[in-house]
Amino acid sequence: MNYVKSIISVLIVVTMISCKSNETEKNPLLNNHWETEIKLDGTNKWTANNETTEGVNKMLDILENLHTTPALDYSALGKDLKSEINIVIQKCSMKGPSHDNLHVLLMPLIDKGDALQKARSIEENKALVESIFYHLKGYERYFV
Which residue of 20, 26, 38, 44 is most buried, as measured by CB atoms within 10 A? Predict the structure, then answer.
């Protein structure tokens, strides 16, 4: 009996993984390949300028205070996020490896913001918003 439960559990996990993998295959923007490219400063986080941290926090605030309703204008949300990304880029005073690693984080985020501005299904938009939120939360793993 335990053997059957184990097999069922494994099948459920495999199904969940394959569904998630199919989702990222359909929309490559949902993957997080940037996580394989970004590096820490040895074992430490990179020091970011205040404007960058403020911009990331503003984008997180936008998403954390988002009320997902059927009438949510995902295109406007994408424009708001893209506007904040542009401000981060304009005010960035970082140099060297910290700047390079910030670009590893920001470039795919720009693509996700652009994609959110295009007409997509509600399911795709929700998946993009979740991916953007996860992406932005990654900032605190690599920068101070």
Answer: 38
The answer to whether the predicted template modeling score (pTM) of the entire model surpasses 0.85 is: no
Domain boundaries, the chain: 1-28, 32-142
**Per-residue tokens: 124:** 């795709």
For residue 139, give the nearest of 113, 115, 103, 90 by alpha carbon: 103
How far is the C-alpha of 132 from the C-alpha of 130, rounded, in Å? 5
pLDDT tens profile 66-106: 987 888 999 999 999 999 999 999 999 999 999 999 999 99
Phi, psi of 50 (to 5 degrees): -55, -40
Tokens at 92, concatenated? 């960035």
DSSP states of the chain as a string?
-HHHHHHHHHHHHHHHHHHHHHHHHH-GGG--THHHH---BTTBPBP--HHHHHHHHHHHHHHHT----TT--HHHHHHHHHHHHHHHHHH----HHHHHHHHHHHHHHHHHHHHHTS---HHHHHHHHHHHHHHHHHHHHHB-
Q: Which CATH class is domain 32-142?
A: mainly alpha
